[in-house]
Specification:
- This protein is mainly α.
- It has helices at 3-13, 42-66, 82-93, 117-126, 129-140, 142-149, 153-159, 161-186, and strands at 100-103, 109-112.
- Strands 1-2 form a two-stranded antiparallel ribbon.
- α5 crosses α8 (161-186).
- The longest helix is centred in the C-terminal third of the chain and has 26 residues, at 161-186.
- It is globular and about 50 Å long.
Length: 197
């Protein structure tokens, strides 16, 4: 089965798998220990992840709805028609040749679209979708890089210190944007809470 079809099916079944759309030819990125905060801040990191995921879902749902498509819901079966599934997939992940690509030291190539609802949500939250793509792919693949190159994870982290710092800055920006977006969404009568365009 093609990865895109598999990813779409996963998203339609459980819409929490948004990151999987980035990949072609390798496993879904997992948060690397390189970017994981110390244990005493792990709960805050989990809450931040939840806020960013909720805002991403809010933005992608609104984008799909504007296009007359039904956003995927957890536990919902995939649409019966392949054509409808393809339309939702194209709208969510983008269509045509991928515009972003990054070759990893493991030999895998990760690609993503700059069009589609997910790309628009990432642009809105992170402020620079292409930069977030590059940074998050590197950071989410530090452990595979260490294993592939037979280096200690600390050494690989040190080599990617700039990307880790950039990842942290972009994620902090996304958390701020996501919090503001969800606050406006939950308080629609707030004069500053106009819905996102």
């Amino acid at each position: 089965m093609r990865l895109r079809t598999r990813v779409t099916a996963l998203l339609l079944a459980a819409s929490s798998a948004l990151t999987c759309c980035l990949l072609t030819g390798c496993d879904a990125p997992r948060p690397s220990r390189a970017a994981t905060p110390p244990a005493d801040r792990a709960g805050a990191a989990d809450r931040a992840d939840d806020v960013i995921k909720a805002a991403t879902r809010h933005l992608t749902d609104a984008c799909l709805t504007r296009q007359g498509l039904t956003p995927p819901r957890p536990g919902q079966s995939p649409p019966p028609a392949d054509e409808r599934q393809r339309r939702v997939s194209d709208a969510l992940f983008g269509a045509g040749p991928t515009e972003l690509s990054l070759s990893l030291p493991t030999g895998h190539v990760v690609r993503a679209h700059t069009d589609g609802c997910l790309a628009a949500a990432q642009q809105r939250l992170y402020g620079d979708q292409a930069r977030w793509f590059r940074t998050s792919v590197v950071v989410n693949n530090l452990e595979p890089e260490a294993a592939h190159t037979h280096r200690d994870l600390a050494e690989v982290r040190a080599r990617h210190r700039a990307e880790i710092a950039d990842w942290q800055r972009l994620r902090a920006h996304a958390l701020s944007e996501a919090t503001a977006l969800l606050d406006r969404h939950h308080h629609p009568h707030d004069p500053m809470g106009a819905p996102p365009a």
